[in-house]
Amino acid sequence: MRFMVERDVLADAVGWVARALPARPPSPVLNGMRIRATEEDGGRVRLSSFDYEVSAKAEVAADVEHPGDVLVSGKLLADMAKLLPAKPVSFTLEGSRVVVKCGASTFTLLTMNLEDFPALPSLPGWVGSIQAGALAHAVEQVAVAATRDETLPMLTGVRVEIEGEIVTLLATDRYRLAIRELPWRPATPGLSRVALVRAKTLRDVARAFSPTEEVQVSLTAPGIVDIIGFAAAGRETTSLLIDGEYPQVRNLLPDSFEASATLNLHDLIEAVRRVSLVAERKTPVQIVLAEGEAVLNAGTGDDAQASETLEAVVRGDETTVAFNPQYLLDGLNAMDTPDVRISMNTITRPVLFQGERDGELVSDYRYLLVPIRFAV
């Protein structure tokens, strides 16, 4: 095997494929990155990785002198590709080693047993497409509510609901719920599908595509091993879906509210950051809603304390509610509107946060947060 490829093209492709390399692989061969050079279409190089759950593949144009197929350490190749000088890179297989040359730099990589490397799954059937930037933004808004506790595998995922031209993303860790609706282009009118994707995988994939790229989304048909796939600009990734019944979280959304308040989003975020400086671990930030204002309090007793008052349009009776400050900030930071509306019923029921623009609710993103009980 011998081929030459541009350094930036190589670094981008290797970086994409390296995302699927496992941190603690059950088998050393899963640390490998496969490099396959062919003379097809004037010369192509395909890079791939797979850990039995997530696969990644990238294909780039290259000047292929001799086709070949090898497996090398993926992490080492990824680290090397990032630091190579901005010059063409040549790969040459010499016995059991791959010699990589770029300018004055030369690296020698040991090959691994290619026969032990698992075959990559194929992309399932195409179900629709969406702009990568819109997908990445929506995933970031929702994934903050997914748990990282692997003892609750269902809640480590983002539920993807496809209904015609609308995709809804949902995530919950039992203490909060994030929901985002966004338009997309389905492959067939009236398409209806549901998938539960690992939040970390979905986040990594959405971030890795260029914001302007059109991402093709694929799903296996019901009853087959559940796989979701994403593809754009010569790059592909697949992931096994989480199997199981997701909780009926939509039932938590109230139909009406007894009280609400509208505040400037930026001012509220900054105020929460300031007063939470004195909040000990697991200590809540209180928000007192009264006529024309919202008062934020943190710290109690002999400990350090903080208080800040913000202007607010309050509807309903005076109310005091308390939240985990980090959970509160996660939801507020996910919003991109000038104002936020806080809607509630009793102080023990989940509180809904929605963006507001020019006095109108923006309903495509909703963040439901369970308040913390406090001593009166």
Q: In the CATH hierarchy, what is the architecture of the largest domain at level 2?
A: Roll
Shape, principal axes of CA atoms: elongated
Instruction: Give a short account of the largest sheet.
Output: 9 strands, antiparallel
Helix count, DSSP H or I runs of 4 or more residues = 6
Compute the average pLDDT: 93
Number of DSSP-assigned strands: 27
CATH topology of the largest domain: DNA Polymerase III, Chain A, domain 2
Just give the CATH class of the largest domain. Answer: Alpha Beta
Which band does the percent of strand residues land in? 35-45%
**What is the topology, as strand order, of the major beta sheet?**
6-2-3-4-18-17-16-10-14
The total domain count is: 3
Give me the Rg, rounded: 25 Å
Unreliable residue runs: none
Assigned CATH superfamily of the largest domain: DNA Polymerase III, subunit A, domain 2
Description:
This protein is of the alpha+beta class and 376 residues long. The protein folds into 3 domains: 2-116, DNA Polymerase III, Chain A, domain 2; 126-250, DNA Polymerase III, Chain A, domain 2, CATH 3.10.150; 253-369, DNA Polymerase III, Chain A, domain 2, CATH 3.10.150. The chain has helices spanning 7-18, 74-83, 132-143, 199-208, 265-275, 325-333, and strands spanning 2-5, 32-38, 44-50, 54-61, 63-66, 68-73, 89-94, 97-102, 105-110, 126-131, 157-163, 166-172, 176-183, 185-186, 192-198, 214-219, 227-232, 235-240, 259-264, 285-290, 293-298, 306-311, 313-315, 319-323, 339-344, 351-357, 360-369. The strands form 4 sheets. A 9-stranded antiparallel sheet has the order 6-2-3-4-18-17-16-10-14. It has a 9-stranded antiparallel sheet with strand order 15-11-12-13-27-26-25-19-23. A 5-stranded antiparallel sheet has the order 5-1-7-8-9. A hairpin with a 7-residue loop joins strand 16 and strand 17 (227-232). Helix 1 (7-18) runs antiparallel to helix 2. The radius of gyration is 25 Å and the shape is elongated. The mean pLDDT is 93.
